[in-house]
Each structure stands twice: as C-alpha cells, then as structure tokens.
Amino acid sequence: MSNDIQHKKGNVSDIIKMIDRANETFVYEIFIPSLGKEVMFREINTSQQQRLVKAIIDSPAYNTEFIFAIRNIIKENCTDEAVDIGSLTIFDKMVICMRMRSMSISNDLDLQFTSPKSEKVITRRIDLNDLVKLAVEKIHIEPATIVDEKGNFQISCSMPSIDDEYGLERELRDNVESIQIQHEKELRQTVGQVFTNEIVKYIKQINIKQGDAIVEVDLKGMSFTDRLAILAQIPAKVNNQIVDYIDSVSKEFQKITLVKEEVEGETIEQRLKIDASFFTVS
C-alpha cells in the first residue's frame, strides 16, 4: 500500500509558501455595493488576527490603529487585482468586515443587553450573514450637493473612500500623537480635531462663485491641514448642512449597527461596533 504523505523538511520560507498556496483554496465571495458585483477574498489568517488584536489597544479618542490594520488586511486578502481597494467606500468596508468576520472567525456574534433596573443580562445571537444581506438591501446612501443661500458655494459630499479615511487618519495621528490626554483641555482639543477630520472626509469638491466664473476646488489629494484651512472659511450654515449629511449617513448605518432588544419591558439599544474587538471570538 502506497503512502501519499510527504514529509517536508525545509526552511521556514518554503513552508510558508506552501501554506500560502493552501490558503488560496479558502476563498469566498463578498458582494461589494459600490461595484455591484461579487469579489473573491481569502480568509483572515492568524497573523492578521494578531494585528487586529493589537489594534484594540488604541487611544480612546479615535480608532486609528484599526483603520490602518483593516485597510491593509482587506488589500492583502482580495484576490482580484483589478479591484482598487482604496476607492471602495466605508460602507463597502463595513460589509467586507462583517463577511470577513463571518467566514474567518464565526458567523455568530453575541450581543449583551443589560436592564438598567435589575442589571439582568440578556444575550442575543446575531447572524452576520443575515446582517450582510440586510445591509445590502436596506442601506442606500447617495451623494449630496450643498448650496448656500446666495449660491456662492456648491459643496459636493459623499461617503469617504477607504483611502480617504486612511490618508486623513494618518495625518490626524501625526498631528495629535504627541498629545497625552491627561487633562480636560487636551481631551477637548483632540476630540475637536477628530470631529473636524470627520467633516472634511465627506467633502469631495467645492465650487466657488467668483463673479460670472465658477472656480472648482478638488479636495482629493489635499492634506488634512489644507482641507481644514478651507473648511474654516466656509459659512457656518453651510457647514451645518454638511454635518446634517454626515448624520444622514450615520442613520443609514444605524439600520444595521443599532440593535434593539426588549429587556424586562424596556427597549434596550446596543450598538454593533465594527472595530478590532469585532474580530475576536464572542
């Protein structure tokens, strides 16, 4: 009787290459909303999960390390080289994260709801594949054009891309990493920067009326500092409309991420956080 088992004694590099080839068989499809098609991805490996676990230890004011880690993992695990991962939207990223977690770790996610009266805890199990389907069906986010009362400004807003989020987050971290949040003033400063960073991520272009001419200002590729300088000069009423648009995007996301459960006659809300801890076993 023949023995088909081959005993491999080689260097670590050769063994890793064999594992990589074996991992190519662990692929699955993810429907990408902005592309309107399925794209194939590999499962998360142990090394990548370790990177995500490390990202849990991050500043409480922002989620930078996870943004960096998951961007790289999505790029590493997409098998279709024709797909520009950086141009996918943050909604695409949410769908990818849920599907990745479902296929690589577990499709079941347990959320806990605690009664404020008796502190009784109820655990509700979430089916992530069902949640992905619901997200694709329920969430609809369109770009918006905001115009001021006099028609001097036209501001084009849309969801940030993965690279928009990464680039501005990278610059934000460079600007604030030296700040040690030990006092209320330092916390206000950091939170303020995080808030304005969120606003500029959603602005794609500003058209400014100059007499009979329209000057188009494309913010793509501009630094965080330059975008902030431009945003500072925008009328407050217009800025408030931008915030309203961002709020509308957040409400769309909440159709999926805000989970409600009845606990002792009260409706308790629990937010599904897609961060580094999302990729640990619940």
Describe the fold and architecture:
- With 282 residues, this protein is α+β, with helices and mostly antiparallel strands.
- Helices cover 45% and strands 22% of the residues.
- It has helices spanning 12-23, 46-55, 64-77, 90-104, 128-138, 162-176, 184-202, 224-232, 236-257, and strands spanning 27-32, 37-42, 108-114, 121-127, 144-147, 153-157, 203-210, 213-218, 258-263, 266-271.
- It has a four-stranded antiparallel beta sheet. It has a two-stranded antiparallel ribbon with strand order 1-2.
- Helix 2 packs antiparallel against helix 3 (64-77), helix 3 packs antiparallel against helix 6 (162-176) and helix 6 (162-176) runs antiparallel to helix 7.
Write the layout of secondary structure elements.
Layout: H1 12-23, E1 27-32, E2 37-42, H2 46-55, H3 64-77, H4 90-104, E3 108-114, E4 121-127, H5 128-138, E5 144-147, E6 153-157, H6 162-176, H7 184-202, E7 203-210, E8 213-218, H8 224-232, H9 236-257, E9 258-263, E10 266-271
Antiparallel strand pairs: 1-2, 3-4, 5-6, 6-7, 7-8, 9-10
